[in-house]
Structure formats: C-alpha cells, structure tokens
Amino acid sequence: MRPLAVIGNVNVDLILGPAEPWPKAGTEVIVDHDELRVGGQAGNSALVWNALGVDYAIAASVGNDQFGRWLSETFGAHGARWPVSREKTTLSVGITHPDGERTFFTTRGHLPRFSLADVFSVIDGTTLAGGYALVCAGFLTDDLTNEYPALFDWADQHGITVALDTGWPLDGWTEANCAATRSWLSRCGISLLNEIETTTLAGMADPIGAAREIRSHMPDGAIVVVKRGPEGAIAIGADGLLVAVDAPVVTVVDTIGAGDVFNAAFLAALAANEPLEACLKAATTIASRAISTLPRSYGGPVFSEEASR
Q1: Is pLDDT of 166 > 90?
Q2: What's the pTM value of the predicted model, to 2 decimals?
Q3: Cβ(40)–Cβ(90) below 8 Å
Q4: Which of 101, 178, 180, 204, CA to CA, is 20 to 30 A from 74?
C-alpha cells in the first residue's frame, strides 16, 4: 500500500441541533443533540483512516489552550509533535437542521498561522515518497497557502501525488479565488471537489464537462473527482475515461464532514491500488455510513496490505 498523508486544518467542532426555524435574536432554543468532536478537513479525514486501520501521517497544528491539548492527545502519537501556535485553537460551532444541512460559526484561531515549516516538522518526504498527500483547507491556512508553490515543489521532488480539496472560500468563489485554485490544481494530481465547487470553478453547469475542463489544466494523468452527495460521484480517470457510481440510499443524520470522509476513503482505496470505480464505491459507501449513523461510524478496517497485492 502506498503511503498516505493529510496536510491541513485540525480544529474543534461543537455540533448542536437540530434547530428549525432559525431563532430570532435574543431568544433561547433547546436542541436534542450536542457533540464536541474533532473537526476540520484534515482532522475528519484522519479519523476515517484511524477507523479503517490505514497507516498515515498528518501535518497540522493546534492553539495554545485546552482545546489544543485535547486535539493533540486525541491523535496520540500523530499529534505529539504538532506545533503549538500562540493563538487560541480554531473553534467551529455547527448548527444542524432537520434536513441534515448545517450552518457554521467559526473563529479564525490558530489555522492562519499553520506554515510550511510546521508541515516539515512532522512529515518526512522520504517516508511519503511515491504516496499521496491530501492538502486541504487552502482558504483557511493563510501562511501555508502562501507557500503552496514550495509545498508542491517538495512533493514533486519526492514523487508525492497531491490531492487537493480547498474547502469553500470564506468570501465565496470570487474570480480571485477561482484563479488561485486553478493555479494550485495545475500542480496537483488529484482534484477532490464537490459538484457546486467543480461547476463554479469551471464556469459551466454540466458536472462532467466541468470535470473535463478542470482536468485540462492539470498535469497529464490527473484524476478529477466530483462529489455529488446523494447522487453519488463521478471521476475522470488517469486514462481520461469517465467513471460514475451511485450513492447508497440512507437516512441522513449529520452531513458535517461528509466530503472529508469521502476523500479519506477514496485515497485509502487508491493507495491500495484499487481501480477507480472501486475507489468511488468505497468513498460513497463509507461517507453514506458516516452521515447516517449517530454516534458516527465508518466501519472497520477494509484496506489491508493483502488487498494491495
């Protein structure tokens, strides 16, 4: 199995809900569910790899407070060497709604100060050589994002394929944000965006056409994945052929982090040398399980050394 790593945001999520309708100012709402858990795109993906029994590395940082200490301890040896920022740990409060959607209130916290030096303090390029690095949350990690060209150079030097999931820009998909993302994708081997992000970035409504447009600006042999929620997923493979899978029909409980779960399961299957269709099926199956279970479940270990031979 090829090496795996995730580089990006780990923060705290406080999930409350469901809430409907949206409360008026000055009122109090009693909700049925609350959960304090690991959050952030990188954190969510790492939790999936833990559950699947996949070996991985994770480059992240935490704030200088009790939340930061809790996050580091939660990840054990993986979090023991994470740099500690002077800022408080980034906190997201997610309000869920009866239809499974959610609204986030997030502090900037420590994430903007996560840097390339922080990445190199916990990830060894030689160990990750020939593997995959999931790079996420580019619109939240200001210092690291400014150093993306050097990060991509490092990946190229070690034969590491970068898989990119930017997350949703805080100020939306402005032309500047679209241009930045296109520039990043020109250095990446895998795009892992949802359907709205893909079509918006490409400037066309058809997700298949949008995927092909994005791939045309990426390196030869790139894979473009479009996450379509309940409609499943499509991908344009390294051979340029389209692959599509349906998602299992489930009762949605909590969609928070669904795309991150998909990313982790997809890359785990890819690292185990599974064909592209099998990677999409694994990703949609595990993401569907995650959003329909409470407490959240990803299933047990499924990608082994034996499976990769």
Answers
A1: yes
A2: 0.93
A3: yes
A4: 101
